[in-house]
Target: Cyclopropane-fatty-acyl-phospholipid synthase family protein
Amino acid sequence: MADAAMRLKGILEQLLGAPLPVRIRTWDGSEAGPPEAPVLVVRNRRALRRLLFKPGELGLARAWVAGDLTIEGDLYTALGLLAGSIWERDEDARTLAQSLRDPEFRSAVRGLFAMAGPPLPPAPPRQEVRRPRRGLHTKRSDKRAISHHYDVGNEFYEIVLGPSMVYSCAYWPAPPPEATLEQAQHDKLELVARKLDLRPGQRLLDVGCGWGSMAIHAAREHGVNVVGITLSQEQAAYARKRIAEEGLTDRVEIRVQDYRDVADGPYDAISSIGMAEHVGSERYLEYATVLHELLRPGGRLLNHQIARRPQRDESAYQVDEFIDAYVFPDGELAPLGTTVTLLERAGFEVRDVESLREHYALTLRRWVANLESGWARAVALAGPGRTRVWQLYMAASALAFERNRIGVNQVVAVRTPESGASGLPLRARVWGAPGPA
Model:
């Protein structure tokens, strides 16, 4: 009799201490759980072994990437329900040690082992990067980490990002479908240009230039001379081709270069859009100091960076296992206050901070839609495992931004000269007129 789903549901509810919020379908075709909820499809017993040998987020991620787990129904709803039961549980929940002393909990674990079959841990999916987190953020390790993420293939990123080829938060004038992703990305690039006050003949350093979109926009729309740097050979080749097609080779240079090796300052302005998350806490002051020294007095930095919520005990911060293993190896998120403090310690005067949190949620949902509409081609280009990685990480990130678990901020900082003349207007940003009382 096919009853694996009902048995698994009972075991999981024992382990969670709460009703399972999604429906389950198991390898024998049986189903159990709320009839109208999204369906978590457990395609084989190997998925259970992954969870037993690596409990928590990484075990779930391995099962997802390998195709042992899938979801039928709305992905965002399913992730939201699971997050509330698994990832966002109260801080005062029982510890594992306390749980293991509970006879019912031990019984549930034994039941899960019995359902999982032969007790052999499955090998992690080949897309996983696992190495000790020591010796981080050397020039070699940073280049290897960047290559893992960005050298998936330019055609794959064309599917996800669309024609703009901008891999950072867009700036939406209105939510979709009133505004398109391409319009929102253009508006973001123009927002950066206006905050930097770019003018013809100036020199702009674009740190982490990606596929060249900011460099092209600054040169074409504002007459700026640009140096863009990236650690990805594939990005650099793609950016150079785009620049040649735009007829901007006399104004834009793309280098495969570490920010620590740039030695041809001073620059009038520096943009760092979605790059600083790769720097790491141990190197962040060095990063800020290098950029400060590359600017002329009065020059501006636009630092566009994802931030996490601060913890009561910052020493307890741990990098997200799934993101570290599959998406951004060695990446780290810092609270906004930490970033501002380090920029100031490097000598910058921080003049403006703007949160774009909701904008990133909209951007990520658009990227997920692009990926899903081009799924067959994406799988042909990058393989099913890598495509599932991108789908899961972008959808989960969209929810994290929507729920204020992470944010993204643009920080405008100035290398203010000794005279104190920052060069900014008295009201650099004007809020909208107040509405009716």
